[in-house]
Structure formats: C-alpha cells, structure tokens
Amino acid sequence: MKAWIALFGLSAVAAVAAPRQLFNGKDLDEWSMAGPGRFVVEGGMMKTEGGMGLLWYKGERFGNCTIRVVFKTSGPRDNSGLYIRLAEEPRDPWYAVHNGYEVQIDAAGDEWHSTGALYSLSKISKRAQKPTGEWNTMDIVLRGQKTIVTLNGEVVNEFVGDQAVPERKQWYEPVRGPRPDAGFIGLQNHDARSTIYFKEISVSR
Fold it and tell me: How far is residue 66's CA from residue 80's CA, in Å, rounded to a whole number?
C-alpha cells in the first residue's frame, strides 16, 4: 500500500510539473505575426522566412516560470531571439526590440550579442551553442525581476532588471530600464538570409 501511495504521489507531481506546450507542431494557433517576415510550419517545426518580423503568443503574459526554446540554425550567422517581458501586445516588431528583453540567438555575435545574451544589456559568461544543424535547448527562468538563461545545460547569463547596463549607443538597441515581472513573449524573424527552426516552445511553473 505504501509503495502504491508513493507511486501515485510521484505520478501526481510529474503531472503537475509537465511543461505546457505553446506550439502544437501543426499550426500557429494562439500565435500572431507582426511585420513583413513570417513563420511557417514545416515537418512539425516552426521555420523563419522573409524579412524582419515578430511571432508573438496571444492573450497571456508570462512571469515566474521557465520558458523552454528548442531550436537549430541552418547557417553559422543565423540570427533570431526570444523576446520576453513585453508590457503590451506587440503590434509592431520594433516595439519588442525597443521595449522587451531579447534573449539572443546568434552564434557569431560577440559576448553582448551572442546566443544567451540579453541583447546589448547583459553579456554571456560562456558560449554553449551547438554547431549548425544540431538542436539546442535554451531555458529562460523568470523570477520576479531576475532572468537566468541556460543553454544546453549550462548557465550562460544571469540578469536583474535594475542592475547597471551599458549606455544605449544605437537607435535599434533596447531602451534601458526594468521591464515588468510578467509580459508577452515572441520569436524574432531577423532577416531573409537567416533560417532557424523551432520544434518546442513550452512553459513550466
């Protein structure tokens, strides 16, 4: 009896802890596109196409959770990112660029603009992205104003919203200052030359 109760308890915990999938592998239901670029569903994966754009998840803000993004690139300079902590629904992709935090995807960038960095705000502590064509798992932990980024099992970035950051130097960089504890999220389609695949976007609490 005790063994059965223990097994039942473990099953209940596992059920509660199971991540919630935001991408169903079939279509972009619950997502909305802003900008000229686009995402298509191909072979159970999201694929970037065209120019600059933002695919954002509708109707819900995320905070105090872990967001998992599983992606692979098709070239060494492919560029994308996950936007977090957007205070408002992003009707234009530049709203996310300027007013959110971009968790960068770009193997070729410097430490401030490479995969796992908060673009131009918080640099990575190490490089952990796998080679072109291999799947990468990036977990973004949101705890109040703290953001922790883990890439392929290695912590590569930790950031708190009120910590010191470099001065804003370019118009396309994010506006400095803290963001909400919870906000909308979105995936960036950076440019027509970058082709990035996403097979999982999930959230767990």
Answer: 19
Asked whether 74 and 191 are in contact (CB, 8 A), the reply is: no
User: What pTM does this model have?
Assistant: 0.91
Comparing C-alpha atoms, which of 192, 155, 173 is closest to residue 80?
192
Average pLDDT, integer, range 79-100: 97
The whole domain housing 152 covers: 20-204
Q: How many whole angstroms from its chain centre is CA 183?
A: 12
Q: Domain containing 171 — which CATH number? A: 2.60.120.560
Per residue, what are the HEC states of 82-118?
EEEEECCCCCCHHHHHHHCEEEEECCCCCCCCCCCCE
**Cβ proximity of 130 and 103 under 8 Å:** no
